[in-house]
Task: inverse folding
């Protein structure tokens, strides 16, 4: 898919980034945006159009979080060599799929994250909470798009479920092929805005993006009828410029979303539970069996959804595991091994 914008000559730099340039830099340098990255090669868009840049050696030696990613703005000298990148307004990241601890840095300087789900069996509030936590942790506004609304009699219950997850979260039920799509998303796709799309495979994300870009070159595949699931139709992150003047980032569909270190995101998403926890009788209350628990009391009185509490505790446990140091993990494993040995001795009289 080609980029709808051939140069940046008519795209003003937003004040947040403009103020980071010194007077000398404003006259002697120019700014480009990273619109794709493949390995150590960046695809850039600047006043002279698209170009490729091999990541300089000094940057390749830096840890991944200190390397430019899609969405970053780079300051280039007159020889088109990178000098630095501008401070980020936002930063989306997650743990890579699998059981490893590697962090995947997804995008920078995104204003709105469109979380795409659908009005069918893909709809999963606990999964949506993961996406919302990722957005809040990255300082990005989430908006949930519920596709395939034309296939259900009443999409409103789906919207209400989403909006109950956190005060202020907007949910929009839509048909990805409806001609009014640009108008529905108009508040978030104005000139200079940067939006990203995340969602499971088969929820209509590629169809949405094709419609917004007025193109049909992105491969799409229908969801399987037996389980409403689809297959990945996007294989790499890439940023495009829309006719409205907004930047659009597409990402591959996800079967699994492992949050990175997202304590701040979880605190924001579950602020109601965090507030209730302050009223628990014991400071180390586990919100599962401890007496005097204000959270459990709210669940018992039907003022708090038990599912949300279970997911909150699950995500908190994941955060504890992710933030453990190597020494702490080894110590936990040693303690577990000692416990196993004691059980063996008690049961069999030997190790």
Result:
């Amino acid at each position: 898919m080609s980029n709808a914008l051939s140069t940046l000559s008519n795209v003003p730099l937003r004040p947040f980034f403009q103020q980071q340039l010194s007077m000398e830099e404003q006259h002697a340098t120019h700014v480009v945006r990273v619109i794709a990255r493949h390995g150590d090669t960046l695809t850039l868009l600047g006043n002279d159009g698209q170009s490729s840049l091999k990541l300089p050696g000094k940057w390749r030696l830096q840890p991944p979080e200190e390397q430019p990613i899609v969405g970053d703005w780079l300051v280039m000298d007159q020889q088109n060599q990178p000098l630095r990148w501008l401070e980020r307004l936002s930063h989306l990241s997650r743990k890579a799929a699998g059981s490893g601890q590697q962090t995947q840095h997804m995008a920078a300087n995104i204003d709105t994250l469109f979380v795409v789900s659908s009005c069918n069996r893909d709809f999963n509030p606990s999964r949506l909470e993961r996406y919302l936590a990722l957005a809040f942790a990255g300082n990005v506004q989430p908006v949930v798009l519920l596709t395939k609304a034309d296939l259900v009699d009443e999409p409103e219950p789906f919207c209400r479920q989403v909006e109950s997850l956190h005060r202020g979260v907007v949910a929009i039920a839509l048909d990805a092929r409806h001609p009014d799509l640009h108008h529905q998303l108009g508040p978030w796709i104005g000139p200079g805005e940067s939006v990203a799309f995340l969602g499971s495979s088969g929820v209509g994300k590629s169809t949405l993006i094709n419609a917004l870009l007025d193109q049909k070159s992105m491969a799409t595949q229908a969801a399987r009828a037996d389980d409403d699931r689809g297959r990945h139709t996007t294989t790499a992150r890439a940023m495009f410029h829309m006719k409205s003047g907004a930047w659009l980032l597409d990402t591959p569909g996800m079967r699994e979303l492992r949050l990175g270190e997202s304590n701040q995101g979880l605190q924001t998403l579950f602020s109601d539970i965090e507030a209730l926890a302050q009223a628990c009788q014991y400071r180390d209350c586990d919100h599962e069996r401890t007496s005097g628990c204000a959270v459990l009391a709210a669940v018992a009185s039907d003022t708090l959804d038990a599912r949300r509490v279970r997911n909150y505790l699950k995500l908190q446990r994941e955060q504890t595991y992710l933030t453990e140091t190597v020494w702490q993990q080894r110590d936990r494993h040693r303690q577990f091994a000692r416990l196993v040995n004691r059980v063996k001795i008690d049961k069999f009289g030997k190790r």
Observations:
- The first strand starts at residue 30 and ends at 38.
